[in-house]
Structure formats: structure tokens, C-alpha cells
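TA notes, week 10

Several of you asked for a full example with nothing omitted. So below is the full record: C-alpha cells for the whole chain, then the designed sequence directly under it. When grading your own attempts, check the secondary structure regions first.
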């Protein structure tokens, strides 16, 4: 059966090797330029043959829609297998039922409600960044954008998703981790474009493969430490609480209080309701039971026994008094009741039960807040806790936890960091955009809430335009597992399809004056094909962290614009790019900062 792809245009193919030779010996930035040139030479659908593999590259919006929305062709293509030793088959790389199950477990951890809690961390880290920058500017105005942004995003992913604060004593490990990621990206690209390095046997026995192994050790040791640290904390809380699930009744109320859904008085009332119910059923002794203690998330230990006795006695007395009052008609009057010894005793008893209940609330609140504050005010079942809980329940093993931590630690920081680093270059080059943003920030005031951030339309347009010009993941690929039609051509099982996000975003027919930085493009509700803008991909394998990424970008960009004026080293200059796992500048990029 003839292969439709064999007839599509593309670089010259030799019978056995296909087109692999054209990539040999090229630098990473030369490779990037070559890739960008391909559609100009060969059109919107082209094929590169690598040995026996047909790799279809698509640039047409309609084709991109078909590929990305296909519900069963969700398997990632060959290059992803080269990063499997690092990320395992975590969410980015896995497929089939494993991917489905994991996606289901992890989706709630990036729910909008959870993001709202993360905004505090975004803000705090943005303030730390501006403080750091102000200090730094006393020596020099020239700032390495990638360096500051990758620190910023790494702090954030660790603090929000992992529940771990990276402080000064971890800076050596952090540096090693970041350096290893950069090297892994370069090595993987070298391997991809050098056909004999595809063989594991050859690759791992050459210096480049040995270096790769060394890098893996470094990234894994960093991630393992994060897991270990959080696991220790998680288990210490879980064990203290007798292995119960963490969001006990009282925690839920305290959480609601933190979120402003209920006030402290409400917490007290709810807490007392339980007492009241217990009373009503005459189950006074319930206060002594495991269940009540579990619900409240506290342990009544020996040093509380006096208070506990007092509480139980008070409850007994209250029961007796209420019955007496009920059956003695003149005691129904508050005026009489509270002025008689029985009423005074009642008041005393109330004080005792209230003080007991209040202490329970206070104690748990202290513990709850110490955890919540340590974790930067985030909600408690963040990403890593949820995984650890799933591990406790036997839904995932520790290796699975590792895969996801490695995946999210990388995807969750490096992508956003590069977008921000490029974004600062673009902003620096346009005073006009900075001023317009500054005005919008002034209208809202410092520390905008999530809904205020969402209302900042110009900020939204700026973030979109940054990701149009510099989509952190410039291309993505699939291995076809089920034949499908791309309009008139049949794409068969075993082929690979590559979607070029970067190139689509710069097509002049879709974006007039495509290389210009014009956030205004996204202000008018002009009808644009939805698949002409896909920085986060689309369809079933879209980015799980897109809201997280955009919100984080908005917070830090507005904080920077509020505090600094940026200017370029060379007006109008745009960095050369290179192939890597994410879009990277070929050289370090600098921007000048001036305090406002
Ligand atoms: C500006 C920042 C970001 C961009 C441009 C971006 C882009 C993308 C793209 C294009 C994909 C599809 C990849 C593919 O098909 O191979 C993807 C997937 C993914 N992203 Fe992001 N991403 C960003 C930030 C984040 C963040 C902050 C997180 C985590 C907190 C994250 C986690 C993931 C994961 C886990 C996947 C795989 C999802 C799946 O296959 O089910 N990303 N991202």
C-alpha cells in the first residue's frame, strides 16, 4: 500500500537514511534557523524522512486542529523517549490508560480555587524579586533575564505545588539542578539530530551519554530531596493525627475561615453544634471518643485531662440545668433565671464549655496555620500532598510520585521562565507598552486580586502576545497509533506528526507584521481561527498548568512594571534562538532596569 506521506514535499531523501544528514554537525541555533526555513521552502505540509520513519510537519491551522483534537492519537513521538530516563512516564510522556488515570488524579490540583490560594505566593515572590533587583541595581542596571526568572519560577513551583521553600542553604543544589536541566536539553537535541546516537548502546558508552547520566543524577537528587522533605512533613502531620485524612472537619472550617467564607464565630458555632447534638442525644461521653477527637483533629492527652473533666462536668450540669429550667415555668424568664444561683451556675458552665471548645479550635488553628503559612498560605492538598496521599492509599507507587514531581518541577518552571525572560526583552523594547501597562496597574493598585488581574485586559493581551512570539514549547509531536485522514491525505499508524507552534504564531497571513510586539492584536475581538494560537497546545493533551502559568506571569509582570522602567541593551534587537526542550535564547539575554 503506497504511503501518502512519501509523495509530500520535503528535504531531499536518500534511500536508506532519508534526510538525516542535513542535521549533522549543525549548532543548536543553526538547527533552529533551518527548521524555521523549512515551510518557506516546502510549504505547509512537509515530510522529513529519518531512516525508515516518516515525520510529517504541519503548519496549516486546519491540520493542527485535526491533529490536536484527535482523541485517540495522543501518544508522544520518538524524541520524548530520550527524556524518559529523566521524567519517567509522568504526565507529559505517558499515554493510554496510565496517562488517563494520572490526568484524572492531577487535574483538581490546578483547579481555579487552588490557584486563588497560590496568588499570595506569586505576590510574595514577586515582591522578593523586586527587593532583590533594587539591591542589585546599586551595582549594575544590566540584568540577566533568564537567571532571575528561572529562580523566580522555580521558587514558585516548589512552594506551591511541592510545599517546599527553597532558601539560601539550598542555593548550591538549585544551581546544580538548573545547570543539569540546561545540559540535558542540549544533549537530547544533539542526540536527536545525530542519528547514530539514537542507539542506547552507542550513546551511553560515549562521553556525551556519560555526561547525560551525570546530569540525570543531579536532577534526580534534587527532586528526591524535595519529595523526601515533604513526605517527612506530611507523615509527621498524618501520624500525629493518628493517620487520619488531613482535611478533618475542623480543618475544613478553618480553611473556609481563611478563605473568608465563614468567620471565627461561625467556626465556634459549628464546633458547638457537634457538642449540642451530642448533648441532645445524651451522648455526653462522646467527647471522650475517638470519633469526636478525629473530627476535631486533636488528641486529648494527659495534660488536657483537667480541662476535659471540667468540660464533661459542665456539659452534665448544663443538661441538668436545662431540664430543670424546662420543667420549672418561672425559670423560663431570662430575667429571673440569670439572676438566680441556677442561672449563674449555668453561665459558669457555659464559660467552661466555651473555653474548652475555643481551645480546641485555637490549637488546631495554630497547627493549621503553621503548616499553611510555612507553605505560603496555599491550600493544603497541593500537588505533592495529593500524590503522597494517593501513595498512602495505594493508588500510585513512590516511583510514580517521582515521575510526576520531576515532570512538574521541570514543565512547571522552565517553560514559564523562558516566556518571562523573552517577555522582559520585548517590554524593554517598547516604552509605549510599558506605559500603557503601568497605567492599567495604577488603576488597580498594588497586590491585585485574582478577579482584578482577570479584569486587566491589557495585561492579558501582553501575556498573550509574549507567548505568541515566544511560545515556550515551540513544537510538539505525536506518534500515530491509529490511521487518520488529514483532509485528503491518509496518515498511517507508525508515522509521526510534528506541530510547529512557533511558526504558526508568526505567519503573516494570520498576524500582520508578525515579528512586531503588538499586544493590541489581542484586544480587538477579531475573528481568528482558534488553532492559530496554541501556546499551550489544545485538545486532550493540552497544558495542565496554563492558568497557573498565565496568572504567575501576570503577577510578576505587573509588579516589575510598577517598580521599574526597562530599556534594551540594543534597541530593536531580538535574540537568536536554539533548539532545546523549551525555546531558549542562543546567548544570554540582558535588559536594563531603572527604578521608577
Ligand atoms: C508559559 C508557560 C507554559 C507553556 C507555554 C506550556 C506549554 C505546554 C504545551 C505546548 C504542552 C503540550 C506538550 C506536548 O504536547 O508535548 C504542555 C503540556 C504540559 N504542561 Fe505546560 N506549559 C507552560 C507551563 C506549565 C506549568 C506552569 C505547568 C505545571 C504547573 C505545566 C505542566 C504541563 C504538563 C504536566 C503537561 C503535560 C500534560 C498532559 O500531557 O496531560 N506547564 N505545556
Amino acid at each position: 500500500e503506497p504511503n501518502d506521506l512519501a509523495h509530500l514535499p520535503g528535504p531531499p531523501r536518500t534511500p536508506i537514511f532519508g534526510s538525516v544528514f542535513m542535521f549533522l554537525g549543525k549548532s543548536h541555533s543553526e538547527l533552529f534557523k533551518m527548521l524555521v526555513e523549512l515551510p518557506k521552502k516546502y510549504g505547509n505540509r512537509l515530510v522529513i524522512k529519518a531512516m525508515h520513519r516518516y515525520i510529517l510537519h504541519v503548519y496549516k491551522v486546519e491540520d493542527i486542529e485535526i491533529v490536536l483534537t484527535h482523541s485517540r492519537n495522543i501518544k508522544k513521538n520518538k524524541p520524548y523517549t530520550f527524556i524518559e530516563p529523566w521524567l519517567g512516564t509522568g504526565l507529559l510522556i505517558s499515554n493510554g490508560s496510565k496517562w488517563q488515570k494520572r490526568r484524572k488524579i492531577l487535574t483538581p490540583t490546578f483547579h481555579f480555587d487552588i490557584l486563588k490560594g497560590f496568588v499570595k505566593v506569586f505576590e510574595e515572590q514577586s515582591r522578593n524579586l523586586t527587593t532583590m533587583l533594587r539591591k542589585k541595581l546599586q551595582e549594575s542596571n544590566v540584568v540577566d533575564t533568564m537567571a532571575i526568572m528561572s529562580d523566580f519560577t522555580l521558587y514558585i513551583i516548589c512552594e506551591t505545588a511541592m510545599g517546599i521553600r527553597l532558601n539560601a542553604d539550598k542555593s548550591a543544589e538549585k544551581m546544580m539542578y538548573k545547570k543539569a536541566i540546561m545540559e540535558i536539553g542540549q544533549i537530547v537535541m544533539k542526540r536527536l539530530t545525530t542519528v547514530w546516537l539514537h542507539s542506547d548502546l552507542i550513546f551511553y558508552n560515549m562521553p556525551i551519554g556519560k555526561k547525560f547520566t551525570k546530569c540525570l543524577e543531579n536532577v534526580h537528587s534534587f527532586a528526591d530531596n524535595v519529595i523526601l522533605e515533604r513526605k517527612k512533613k506530611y507523615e509527621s502531620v498524618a501520624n500525629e493525627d493518628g493517620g487520619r485524612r488531613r482535611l478533618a472537619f475542623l480543618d475544613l472550617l478553618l480553611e473556609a475561615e481563611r478563605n473568608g467564607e465563614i468567620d471565627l464565630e461561625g467556626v465556634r458555632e459549628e464546633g458547638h453544634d457537634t457538642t449540642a447534638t451530642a448533648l441532645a442525644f445524651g451522648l455526653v461521653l462522646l467527647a471522650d471518643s475517638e470519633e469526636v477527637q478525629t473530627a476535631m483533629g486533636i488528641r486529648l492527652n494527659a495534660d488536657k485531662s483537667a480541662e476535659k473533666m471540667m468540660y464533661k462536668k459542665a456539659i452534665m450540669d448544663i443538661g441538668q440545668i436545662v431540664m430543670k429550667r424546662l420543667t420549672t415555668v418561672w425559670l423560663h424568664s431570662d430575667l429571673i433565671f440569670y439572676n438566680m444561683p441556677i442561672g449563674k451556675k449555668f453561665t459558669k458552665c457555659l464559660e467552661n464549655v466555651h473555653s474548652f471548645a475555643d481551645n480546641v479550635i485555637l490549637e488546631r488553628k495554630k497547627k493549621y496555620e503553621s503548616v499553611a503559612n510555612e507553605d505560603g498560605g496555599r491550600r493544603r492538598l497541593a500537588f505533592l500532598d495529593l500524590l503522597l496521599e494517593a501513595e498512602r492509599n495505594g493508588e500510585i507507587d513512590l516511583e510514580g510520585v517521582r515521575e510526576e514531581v520531576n515532570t512538574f518541577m521541570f514543565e512547571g518552571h522552565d517553560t514559564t521562565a523562558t516566556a518571562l525572560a523573552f517577555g522582559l526583552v520585548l517590554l524593554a523594547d517598547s516604552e509605549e507598552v510599558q506605559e500603557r501597562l503601568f497605567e492599567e496597574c495604577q488603576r488597580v493598585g498594588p497586590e491585585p486580586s485574582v478577579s482584578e488581574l482577570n479584569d486587566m485586559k491589557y495585561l492579558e493581551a501582553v501575556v498573550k502576545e509574549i507567548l505568541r512570539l515566544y511560545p515556550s514549547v515551540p513544537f510538539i509531536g505525536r506518534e500515530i497509533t491509529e490511521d487518520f485522514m488529514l483532509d485528503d491525505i491518509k496518515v498511517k499508524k507508525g508515522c509521526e506528526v510534528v506541530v510547529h507552534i512557533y511558526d504558526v504564531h508568526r505567519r503573516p497571513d494570520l498576524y500582520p507584521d508578525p515579528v512586531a510586539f503588538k499586544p493590541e492584536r489581542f484586544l480587538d475581538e477579531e475573528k481568528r481561527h482558534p488553532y492559530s494560537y496554541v501556546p499551550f497546545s489544545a485538545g486532550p493533551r493540552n497544558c495542565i498548568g496554563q492558568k497557573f502559568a498565565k496568572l504567575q506571569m501576570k503577577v510578576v509582570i505587573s509588579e516589575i512594571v510598577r517598580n521599574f522602567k526597562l530599556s534594551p541593551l540594543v534597541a530593536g534587537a531580538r535574540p537568536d534562538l536554539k533548539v532545546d526542550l523549551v525555546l531558549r535564547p542562543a546567548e544570554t539575554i540582558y535588559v536594563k532596569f531603572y527604578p521608577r
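The chain is about 55% helix and 10% strand. Use that as a sanity check on your answer.
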